[in-house]
Write a structure and sequence with these properties.
alpha+beta; Alpha-lytic protease prodomain-like; GMP Synthetase, Chain A, domain 3; 2 domains; four-stranded mixed β-sheet; 8 helices; 4 strands; 62% helix
């Protein structure tokens, strides 16, 4: 017997008009700063400002992705997309972060070359644009702070914005140093530091999104604890073919074969209900598929059956 549980209220993102408005305003302001810093970087010949523009682009993408996730979660599943469209968010994150790493690596290379061959930078313009960028980032961070406490999706965007505020401080420091000392190497030095910050964040997103796409066990989930909770109800003697994966960030799914002793099989519905409640309350797993088997059955792990053509069985 199979039981399927898709408790949507626990993981579907509700339409929050207030949050949507905040995100839309944040995206608009951050996009303006991105354009201003990009143009300002070219006009002032500041590599640090152009690099910060790349970091701001990450903010724009993160904020847009948060808003996109809210809308995409509202789309109903279809016969072709039975889990809905949550996985689109993961795929876009992977592609964007990969491209960003390539762009940032090139900027880092240019910064390395310019450090040994510094060029004049218009410090006053850098200071003005960098200061405006810092103010906008602090405003956006304040708007999102309340929602970031309870929404992991928004928290990710909030962390991006805070990181960019720190990068803006670096740009301002660079402008001040150049203005008072004329030491131009500080500009590519700050640029390379911001590049390292961007690459670190992008690589984390690549690792997380690829882990989800490969259907690995979510890092927030303790596999052993989940197995123990499935085994905890009276009458359950074993569990096998236990698989846990993410549909997208913070939306988890599970399937398992549960061994129940013959004398307790009449309580199957009650046992599965208890297991589902534990999975939902303690592990935030709301997509579950449980199959009951008689105690003593041989494990039938699906991975023992999967084999590539021409390679025989798995070892």
């Amino acid at each position: 017997m199979d039981t399927h549980r898709h408790d949507t209220h626990g993981h579907e993102v509700e339409a929050d008009s207030g949050l949507k408005r905040r995100l839309l305003v944040s995206i608009t302001l951050t996009s303006v700063i991105f354009i201003a810093e990009l143009i300002g970087g070219f006009l002032t010949n500041s590599l640090a400002l152009m690099t910060d523009a790349a970091h701001v682009f990450m903010d724009v993408f993160a904020l847009s992705l948060s808003l996109f996730a809210i809308y995409i979660a509202e789309l109903p599943p279809t016969e072709k997309r039975t889990y809905g469209f949550h996985r689109v968010e993961v795929f876009v994150s992977f592609i964007n972060s990969f491209v960003l790493v390539l762009i940032t690596a090139f900027i880092f290379y240019k910064g390395f070359l310019r450090f040994f061959n510094p060029e004049p930078v218009e410090s006053a313009g850098v200071l003005i644009v960098g200061s405006i960028g810092l103010v906008v980032n602090l405003m956006v961070a304040k708007w999102l702070h309340g929602h970031a406490k309870s929404d992991l999706n928004v928290r990710s965007a909030f962390i991006h914005v805070v990181g960019d505020a720190a990068a803006s401080v670096g740009v301002i420091i660079s402008a001040v140093v150049i203005y008072y000392t004329g030491w131009y190497p500080i500009d590519p030095l700050i640029s390379m530091a911001i590049c390292a910050l961007i690459i670190n964040g992008a690589v984390k997103i690549i690792r997380e999104s690829s882990h989800i796409l490969l259907e690995g066990v979510p890092r927030e989930i303790d596999f052993g604890r989940v197995r123990d909770d499935i085994l905890s109800p009276e009458g359950v003697t074993g569990v096998h073919s236990l698989h846990i994966w993410s549909i997208c960030h913070n939306v988890y799914a599970l399937s398992a074969h549960v061994d129940i002793i013959p004398t307790q099989r009449w309580r199957m519905g009650e046992i599965f209900s208890e297991i589902n409640e534990k999975l939902a309350h303690d592990h935030h797993i709301f997509y579950t598929t449980l199959q009951a088997e008689c105690s003593g059955c041989e494990p039938n792990d699906i991975f023992r059956k999967i084999a590539h053509r021409g390679r025989g069985h798995l070892h």
